Amino acid sequence: MATAPNNFILTSLPPLPTEYEEILIDLDTPRPQWYLDINPRGLVPSIKYSLPGIFDEPETLTESAIVAQFLCDTFPSPLLPASKEDPFSALKRARIAFFVDTWSSKIAPFQFQILKAEAGAEKEAKAEECVKVMEREIEPLLVGAGPFFGGSAELTLAEVMTAPFVLRMLSFARDGELMPKSFGEKLEALPNFGKWSKAVLGDGVVRKVYDEKGVVEGTKKRVKQMAAK
């Protein structure tokens, strides 16, 4: 499995009950040829999967969401129950999928929009728009979080798939340059989101793999490069 440093989506998965090799890929340098031979598109992460005796020719899967879902389906854990584990498992899976889809379609696009907005009124307005959408679309889905999605006491796939965005949004707001400080304050003031995000940020796995300073400084560099083009 090839992944990148700080890839919370994959490193937050529980230990897999099978042998595998993890190779880190530096996203700030061109992909080495050996990796392009495996994955010509150069996307990270990717996983080569085979099942000796059943199909020996490895198949390559890419994209964090697809790889994470595949691993959760192959090795069920508290992150995502098997669909027939109990009478409520399929419903839990559907709720998690809907939450992730809502975040991806309604909230995630705001991250880039706020980053590229002009400092001042434009950035503030875009951040305020995001807060309103968060309150309308995400806040109701976090009713009953205890402290994680659906009342779970442990991380679920809902957190695994959305935590990278939550972490970055709040980190960028704390910095104040990439996103307005008021943006983070308003998000944390939302009753359900505030409690849930605090639990996510306080989880040991999240903190272990997230280099806040590196992510913030790296993003500033990329934003400046985009603005210069």
Automatic annotation (TrEMBL):
Start and end residues of each GST C-terminal domain: 89-229
UniProt-listed Gene3D superfamilies: 1.20.1050.10, Glutaredoxin
GO cellular component labels: cytoplasm
InterPro entries assigned to the protein according to its UniProt record, in alphabetical order: Glutathione-S-Trfase_C-like, Glutathione-S-Trfase_C_sf, Glutathione_S-Trfase, GST_Omega/HSP26, Thioredoxin-like_sf
Domain of life according to the entry: Eukaryota
Name this polypeptide is given: GST C-terminal domain-containing protein
Species: Friedmanniomyces endolithicus
